[in-house]
Amino acid sequence: VCIPDIMLSKVCCLGAGYVGGSTLSIIAHYCPEIQVTVVDTCDEQIKMWNSDTLPIYEPGLDEIVKLHRGKNLHFSSDIDKAIDEAEMIFISVNTPTKNWGLGKGRATDLTNLEAAARRIAKVSRQPKVIVEKSTVPVKAAETTSTILQFEAKSRRNISSLTITTNNNDNKLNEFVVLSNPEFLAEGTAVNDLCNPDRILIGGDSHSSSGKLAIEISINAISAICEQTSADIKEVSKAIGADHRIGPYFLNASLGFGGSCFRKDILSLMYISETLNLPEVASYCLNLHFINAFFTCIHIIIVFFSLKNIRDSPVIPLCNQLLQEQAELAIYDPKALHKQIESDLLINNNKDSFSQFVHICSTPEEAVTNAYAILICTDWKCFQEYDYAKFYRLMTKPARIFDGRIILNHKQLSQIGFIVEAIGIASESFTMNGYVE
């Protein structure tokens, strides 16, 4: 790749979400000589990044942001100014699964990525290095390059503009488009950024998400590589460098969550179908269905917490229970109440929400008169609560569903709880004959 001979002093990121905000904060931390600006079209999101309550929770992130904010780390709504001044621009916009048109429910929606590329082309007045951080399918960098080329020509009347993605052109390039996929795990993002298993320039992260979902066959990825001129050895090496593919990420749980896991599997399905690889598409579809199986456990949720509520498997579980007219008392020490309400309101009307959903300020409030407790994340605080006290407050028989297998089940049974856990027969933990 021929990169313009520029002195890097200013970097910006389009998209102040989970990936953009955390990644650029770490860049600011390790590169104090570089001015880092994170911009977003959502003014509320920017206000939160500039406040004492960040829009996301990651251990250690709050301290890093507060240390550098206002010095070499800035959060702004002035997108054009940030684009114009930066020598390197990260694109970290939302790329959800399409919910309309061709590929609906499977293909990746690149609307936001394309809009970002058009805006960069419109505003830029000097050479830029464009880095795609968003989760994108194969060939997306070429799409971005094409948009930059034609938008720049039409808007700025440039007769000849060179855009490169991966060639040996030695001419000075106006834009260089690179792909630098993220491999962050929610709850350990700061550590993942500071101590990465690998850093990739180019390629895509779909195969890693597929392997994380359930040890996806390398033969499926191989077939896709053959159709797209990718090197299966390089892809295998990139996937294998991820520590999460080991035992740590193969523990049983409620199912895979996060915005990227789910949509990456769906995107792999769609890519496989468009490349006329129906067997591979079917394999990926099975991964999606396996995850869906775990989101339909019929117990009453009265208590849960999420690392990042976005696309969490708990959300469809809550919606399923609400359809059964279950009453939910929700306690989350980190997620914002507005965020919880927003995600649960997507498939529920306001009247039913206010009638059946209660967002609580303390765990004691949540468990009072409740029938069951559902643990949805492996935070240490959930291991340290006084469950004997909770038991006294609950309706009997009282149940605990351990969705992360982090609690002392024997001790809970001795207190009187009926304990159930993912992947473990409930009879092992029940007492007093309460077995269903």
Automatic annotation (TrEMBL):
InterPro entries: 6-PGluconate_DH-like_C_sf, NAD(P)-bd_dom_sf, UDP-Glc/GDP-Man, UDP-Glc/GDP-Man_DH_C, UDP-Glc/GDP-Man_DH_C_sf, UDP-Glc/GDP-Man_DH_dimer, UDP-Glc/GDP-Man_DH_N, UDPglc_DH_bac. GO terms for biological process: glycosaminoglycan biosynthetic process; polysaccharide biosynthetic process; UDP-glucuronate biosynthetic process. The active site is at residue 260. Its EC number is 1.1.1.22. It is an enzyme of class 1 (oxidoreductase). Pathway: Nucleotide-sugar biosynthesis; UDP-alpha-D-glucuronate biosynthesis; UDP-alpha-D-glucuronate from UDP-alpha-D-glucose: step 1/1. GO terms for molecular function: NAD binding; UDP-glucose 6-dehydrogenase activity. Substrate binds at residues 183-186, 249-253, 257, 307. Residues 308-409 form the UDP-glucose/GDP-mannose dehydrogenase C-terminal domain. NAD(+) binds at residues 40, 95, 135, 186, 263, 310. SUPFAM superfamilies: 6-phosphogluconate dehydrogenase C-terminal domain-like, NAD(P)-binding Rossmann-fold domains, UDP-glucose/GDP-mannose dehydrogenase C-terminal domain. One of its GO terms (cellular component) is nucleus. It catalyses: UDP-alpha-D-glucose + 2 NAD(+) + H2O = UDP-alpha-D-glucuronate + 2 NADH + 3 H(+). Keywords: NAD, Oxidoreductase. Belongs to the UDP-glucose/GDP-mannose dehydrogenase family. This is UDP-glucose 6-dehydrogenase. It comes from Schistosoma bovis.
